[in-house]
Amino acid sequence: MTLSVLSSALASSASAAPAPGFSYPFVFGPFPKILSSNPAETLAQSRQNLEADPEIHAFLQDVRHQLSPTQSQDGSGVRTVKYQDTYHGLEVLGSMALHHEGPEGVQITDALSRFDLDVTPRLDPSEALSLVRARIGDRELQSVPELKILPRHDGSAELIYQISLKSTATAPGADLLVAANTGETIAELSHHWEIEPEMDPTPPTGRAKRKPVSPKLAVPLIDVYGANAKCQSLDEEGFPSSIQPSLCTAMAKSSQLKAAADEAGTQAFKNAQSVATYYAQIHGRNSFDNKGTRLVNVVHVGKEFANAFWDTEDQIMGYGDGDGVHFASFTRAADVAGHEMTHGVTSVTAKLMMMGESGALNEAYSDFFGKMISNDGDWVMGKKIFKDPNAQGIRNLKDPGSILARVSGGKDKVTKKPYPSKMSEEFPIQEPCDSSNDRCWVHLNSTIPSHASYLTAVAIGAENSEKLTYLTLTQYLTPAANFKDARDATLKACAQLFAAATCKKVEGAWSAVGL
Ligand SMILES: [Zn+2]
Description:
By secondary structure, this protein is an alpha+beta fold. Among the domains are: about 110 residues, no CATH class; about 70 residues. The chain contains 13 helices and 21 strands. The protein has a seven-stranded mixed β-sheet, with helices on one face. Strands 1-2-3-4 form a four-stranded antiparallel β-sheet, sandwiched between helices. Strand 5 and strand 6 form a beta hairpin. Helix 8 runs antiparallel to helix 11 and helix 10 packs across helix 11. It is globular and about 60 Å long. The relative contact order is 0.11. Zinc ion binds next to strand 9, helix 7 and helix 8.
């Protein structure tokens, strides 16, 4: 990403007092004002501004690339238009240009991928599929394999087929990214975004409680269901693979608790209320999608299932009852609920791909907002889901290394290593990214950016940091963002919200984790 625009913005804000309201010439000389309330005009003007950026201008001279606007958002006083890149008509995953317009002026984010690529795949879709079939069997596809481009951060790019698998009785739905020239699987991205707990004891750590802000918006309706044999199917390990809430036992409908609600159902209902209220009150967001969509929760999913997840396919949240040995019901922790439903927010905003560093960012944002939502005075995730009241939780944003993560060392030996708190401790990424390596360590490496979020909250206060992190996640990030991109995006968003001195502290927090 180019930071020239941001650097000039920060330099300008440092040298002069901010002008009131919109002040483009003050921050960004060459850009026209775009205060139009007419969406078509705004779009046209944002496009002109993009083309005024020399690097994007040069990019657009290459007629193999086309940019089309995908999303326009309002929030935190910043309007964002995202432009998706196609190359010879093929979607380039995560390659985007972003146009932001906020109190401090116009900003451009150039996350466009530059590469040369022959777009004729060696394998046709059916050949690629038959190679993949050896591994996935006769699983039903959600749609035909789609030829796309996966750019790499080293400047290369690869032709891939994105193959979407439907959920089955034994496995949740998933997206396979398969090399279109070799048929090799690069990643298998589950549609269940889990919290994936690990177990080990360390003492919790504290932070000051934050006062709630007065309500701004109505909250979405909440449904809670209890899973039963009719409405869910399980794999051989007892993991839930598909759920049909309408066939489950209704415990709450349209925000009304029913007589059938048991302890887990009641707790899930309260959790959903906390999450919905948090997003409405603090961020003016109506439900995970900002469209007021009902929050559907299913409790008792799986059999002795020690996990919770957000299902990106059905847009529902599932809670396991725990294994009964180490883990109790996952409904007991509001931070777990906040984590999962924040995955819902991410799935319709930044759409961070659940592999490698982009996946670790996805997990980190879920943990951060999980703690903001539970507001329980510490930075430890999921303490309450453990049967042992002294358990240390599943991740610790303040002191990541105090918790050991289970790193698979083969079938017979389980190796444990501390969660990383800086780049020098990052777990190396080795494809394919699948369930055998936590999809290239999405949960394990998440503590690097989530620790930066903790340090940011310490430096500028929890209220400021949640505002900044929300704006970054919903408007400034692109699906393939890596940690460095997230740092840059955060500083850009910061320039819209806070004075240069505050953003300097944010920069310090990221620099402390090696970014
Ligand atoms: Zn997660």
